[in-house]
Amino acid sequence: MHELSITRFIAAPTDKVWDVMSNRIEEWFCPKPWRAEFANLERRAGGTSDCTMYGPDGEVQPNPGTVIAWDEGRRFAFTDALVGDLEPSGPFMVGIWEVEPATEEGVAGTRYTARARHWTEEACQQHEEMGFTEGWGACADQLKALAEAD
């Protein structure tokens, strides 16, 4: 498997982290100063995901896909291999975002893990070179800050 991943401990209950992850997705899903807008996100396996990312200099990056897993309170996953009404697309990855209860240094909280799985080693290397660690790490930090607030 050609996988890249990011993990964070979040000092907040898993249900709170899930709530922020799923209901405030546009606030953390891409690294600032970029922003994400979901025109559609069907919270079920087989549902559509229609996200567009907007850059600070007018960049527009459409990210259509299909939801391949939505396990309420635990994880969701999207792929760009299928778009629209099950139309094949040039596959790049499967993205998986998940949470589970965890304890770190005596603090109860949540382990957040985001994974990008690729069809080929070349695609995986390309994603790493595109800034996977920095970009997905920034998103994880944004999620952490939102979930730990209050």
* Helix/sheet category: alpha+beta
Which of globular, elongated, flat, extended, rod-shaped describes the shape?
globular
What percent of residues are in strands?
35-45%
Helix content: 10-25%
Number of strands: 9
Which assembly state applies to the chains in this document? single chain
Radius of gyration: 15 Å
- Which strand order does the major sheet show? 1-9-8-5-4-3-2
Order of helices and strands: EHEEEEEEEEHH
Keywords:
150 residues; alpha+beta; 7-stranded antiparallel β-sheet; two-stranded antiparallel ribbon
Please tell me about this protein's structure.
Helix content is 24%, strand content 45%. It has 3 helices and 9 strands. It has helices spanning 14-23, 121-129, 132-148; strands at residues 2-10, 35-41, 48-54, 60-71, 75-79, 82-83, 87-88, 94-104, 107-118. The strands form 2 sheets. It has a 7-stranded antiparallel beta sheet. Strand 4 (60-71) and strand 5 (75-79) form a beta hairpin. Helix 1 crosses helix 3. It starts with a strand and ends with a helix.
